[in-house]
Amino acid sequence: MNILFVHQNFPGQFRHVAPYLAQQGHQVVALGQADAGALPGVRMLRYRLARGNAADVHPLAREFETKVLRAEACAEAATSLKSQGFTPDVIFSHPGWGEAMYLKAVFPRARMACLMEFYYRARGQDMGFDPEFPMPGWRDEARLQAKNANLLLAMEAMDLGIAATPWQKQVLPEWARDKTVVLHEGIDTDEVAPDPSAEVFLPNRNVRVRPGDEVLTYVARNLEPVRGYHVFMRALPRILRLRPQARVFIVGGDGVSYGAAPQGKTYRQQYLEEVGHQLDPARVHFMGKVPRNVFLRLMQVTRCHAYLTYPFVLSWSMLEAMSAGAVVVGSDTAPVRDVIRHGENGLLADFYDAEGLADAVADVLGRPQRYAQLGRAARQTVVEGYDLNRVCLPGYESLLHQLV
After folding, report:
1. Please, which residues have CB within 8 angstroms of residue 366's CB and are 6 or more apart in sequence?
2. Residue 129, SS3 per DSSP
3. Which residues pair with 351 in a beta bridge?
4. pLDDT along the chain (404 residues), means of 10
5. In order of start, what are the domains of the chain with their CATH numbers?
6. What is the pTM for the complete model shown?
7. 3-class secondary structure, 123
8. 356: exposed, middle or buried (C-beta count within 10 Å: 0-12, 13-18, 19+)?
9. Helix or strand (DSSP H, E) at 108
10. In which order are the strands placed within the sheet that holds 160-163?
């Protein structure tokens, strides 16, 4: 078959499935805006925007105009591809940036599957969930509608939707759920596995930790409220008092991936100023963004991994922590409940309850033998339901044949 992958930041979520399908003998072409580099068996093409946003476009229409500009550029590139003799049987697209809008106009006979990562709502998800932050005004809601306008057009055009988790499917409009399946992008459980010889060494701080040490980890792309950074920081003083030998490793940048930008200081600085006088800097290590091998080693040495999130897209890092055999204390929010069953393969704590989170984490740190089975069950959960090579990649190939 001829297969076209479309993603602004290709490969994105298609990093593994595109070369996998090429390896199965399919002709695979990828279309994106950035230079993705080489992937085995994948022919990479780039689209380029003809112009930027108009200077006088209405602010509430700017988001949708941006998507239209990308959709137009993508359609032009697809037309050029068609003139070269390539017509896809199946298109896999991430519609979040607009590229999927006009693809069926260029390739009307192609079947299109859209990776439906998220559908925005003004209440109870990434907005309107946390009482610490004000409810959005009508202009904020209007901006969300503009984000959803592109997604609604993509859902109308798609023949199949793919959601990574049950909750991500559940937030879609009901009519779109009916043609959406649940299939995760996959976790390489061979790469991310327990390793008793793992070690993390910070020579500038004279810190060395190995499996069995009293280590707590927290990971987010950026340290921000959507990922519960503020709750975690407020739990830290109590954790350190209850467990005087524990060391804490906090991974994440100072930017903003999701939600509103902070006013003035970064979120890391704001909440460190709030509780920093209660923390021992010799035991709390802010790592910033780290290379993947360092992240994997941290997951292999940690005794407890804290993962918090608003009702939002579930982080790969939580699943990778579970795959490494870590005991995860997660927020009792819908995306986390998709994977963690309290007391069976991890623990759940009320998102807003910093003291309750601290007590749960301290108990895991203090009684490793009692909770070791949760770590083993966590890995089994990922192996059975999210394994890249044995579950998810074959699942994509099955969807391919189902589509045609």
Report:
1. 242, 243
2. coil
3. none
4. 96 95 96 85 93 92 94 96 97 96 96 96 84 82 87 96 97 96 98 97 90 97 96 98 98 88 89 94 95 97 98 97 98 98 98 98 97 98 98 96 90
5. 2-186+388-403 (3.40.50.2000), 200-385 (3.40.50.2000)
6. 0.94
7. coil
8. middle
9. none
10. 42-46, 27-32, 2-6, 90-93, 111-115, 160-163, 180-182
